[in-house]
Amino acid sequence: MSMAPGSGAGHREGSLAGALRVPLRPPVPPLAARLPAAGAATAAPWSADPYSDALRTGQGPLYLRRPDGWLLPLEVERWCGRADAADLEALRRCKGAVLDVGCGPGRLVAELAARGWAALGIDVSEAAVAHTVRLGGQALRRSVFEPLPGEGRWDTALLIDGNVGIGGDPAALLRRMSQVLAPGGLLIAETVPDLDIDERVSVHVVRVTGAHGDAGDVGPAFPWARLGTPALLRHATRAGWRPDGQWATGGRSFVALRNRRNFPTRSSAEPPNSTAVISSQRDRKSSPERPVADL
């Protein structure tokens, strides 16, 4: 399966590869030292237990729980495994330099890196970033709504594994993705299969224990969204995106969108005291002629 970038993307891809190698602060303290006490309202939703614990062990059961008690299974074992056939079909459509938003434990970033592509994962979870780095990928501990390297220059962005729900506001997320991508850039998003659902809710990450499905560890509440393909296309059309394909495989569904707008971007320079955690791996498609400071 060819993973070669599209024509004309090579120079930008090389430039962005340089952006992945940013100066770091001293190592971030261990996660346990920075988490608030149990029950504190300030814990970040995907950086606190039980999500971090599940990524470290590679095992669930883990769920998103709505206030009414409804549970959505989180596929921890699949996320911590290798890219499957459905993942590879999505990656086959990528062009140029790729940003994986909410990269989780990094299977997609690692797969792209192994194939020689410039790829960066971002995630708010320290455990997810650490797992991505161990797999050989590059990752930043960062929210998509914070300043990012190479803003306005990424050729492809990924919102896989339900990450179209990040922030609980699809319109805001689509606008932000327009800022991150280059004009005409490609967004590949995974949607809820076989349903025309457009749901915005407050959820907790919970680990379920016991034969009766009792909740064990419970993370803090945070906003989330669930979108089927029709709902995402409606939001995308209103936000000025152009549909560029949709497909289903392996029981999962995906949408490709093209960025038709060029929103003003924030500075793409890395803050001098960044708390990002990235790998020391050097991308095989880096450009020695374009220093990081130029991005």
UniProtKB/TrEMBL annotation:
EC number: 2.1.1.222, 2.1.1.64
Gene Ontology terms describing biological process: methylation
Biased composition (Basic and acidic residues): 281-295
UniProt keyword Cell membrane present: no
Gene3D superfamilies recorded: Vaccinia Virus protein VP39 (3.40.50.150)
Region (Disordered), start-end ranges: 262-295
Record keywords: Methyltransferase, Transferase
Biased composition (Polar residues): 264-280
A Gene Ontology molecular function term of the record: 2-polyprenyl-6-hydroxyphenol methylase activity
Name of the protein described by the UniProt record: Class I SAM-dependent methyltransferase
Species annotation: Streptomyces sp. R41
